[in-house]
Amino acid sequence: MEVRSRAPGKIILAGEHAVVHGATAVAAAIDLYTHVLFRLLPPPYDSGDGLVELELKDVDLVFSWPLSRLEQAFKEITPLPSSPRSCSQENLEVLQMLVGEKNIPEARIELSSGVYAFLHLYTSIHGLKPAKVVVTSDLPLGSGLGSSASFCVSISAALIALTDATAIEKKTGWLTFGDTELELVNKWAFEGEKIIHGKPSGIDNTVSTFGSMIMFRSGELTRIKSTAPLKMLITNTKVGRNTKALVAGVSERAFRHPDAMQSVFAAVDFISKEMSTVIESPASDDISVTAKEEKIEELMEMNQGLLQCMGVSHASIEAVLRTTLKYKLASKLTGAGGGGCVLTLLPTLLCNTVAERAIDELEAGGFQCLKAEVGGKGLEISFE
Ligand SMILES: Nc1ncnc2c1ncn2[C@@H]1O[C@H](COP(=O)(O)OP(=O)(O)OP(=O)(O)O)[C@@H](O)[C@H]1O
Ligand SMILES: C[C@@](O)(CCO)CC(=O)[O-]
Ligand SMILES: [Mg+2]
Question: Where does it primarily localize (predicted)?
């Protein structure tokens, strides 16, 4: 039995970090995906041991665990695909031991948390069955484009697709789950994100699961629809960072300065709400489209200023902002910051040569520019 899944990455147009503290944020899926191939293998014929194998193609690593090792390490494994559950502290310690035995080089140790998330999802959904899972991604890892969420969503979806918890008709081509299955996948993916991020808001896994553009607050999503296409340039500073550490840093700052930081989060809440109103406002001609884009640009700049207040900007992000500003383009970091990716709005009437000159200058500075379609598809699966 075999299934494939793909789940998109995302950009956050407004509200990252503040959303962890209850503010509204606006996010959209992008057309860069994490792909998973999941094959359930038949149980071994003899009394020999089967394996669970995980191949992470992007980082050129393959892990495998004999089922007997997993059975011995966990006190109890009761697969319950329909009941998403958190990883207990006790099981997290077991995961740390199992992954620790694989001797991941120190320089790549941040990959461990993704492997913990995989093992938690696998054993909770399928228990002890031999299987092979292969993961590849179009997304740069750990760069603010939601690689961890699309990893968790695509893995959860592939695992769920081969259980009785779904009643999907196995037609040809890429298929979408029904709402009940999407909700279930989203909940499992959130449990995976908790292992990778510590304290996620759930926005990244939600937009990766459901796609499109969403306004998100305290676990609730509202779909929004742009009345004019939004063209965004994504610049990867290539400065590595870790979302868990950045989220924890903002919480520590909020603990030290509760009143000031609550005001910052409240200001972001207004920015995100206004951003979604502007995105949905009618724009039928060049004048109204330009007015709308100017408002979005101003809101992006205001949000960037508040992200600086939260302490999550970075010299590399500031360098991208200075370059794009030379071309009168507005930018903000996207995702957790601290390096990673920067978003720049490319206005509809911007002449191509200006955009090209800005991209050339960014790339000459060692940054990597990506163009992505915004607000597209969410999770899909295929049985072919
Ligand atoms: N394709 C993949 N292969 C292996 N591990 C992955 C993959 N995608 C994500 N991960 C895991 O997710 C981690 C990166 O997650 P992190 O939350 O720090 O960054 P991000 O999700 O790309 O950015 P953001 O959370 O700001 O959107 C990696 O270190 C790894 O553990
Ligand atoms: C930084 C953050 O707000 C977004 C990361 O893409 C964290 C989260 O919401 O889980
Ligand atoms: Mg992440």
Answer: cytoplasm
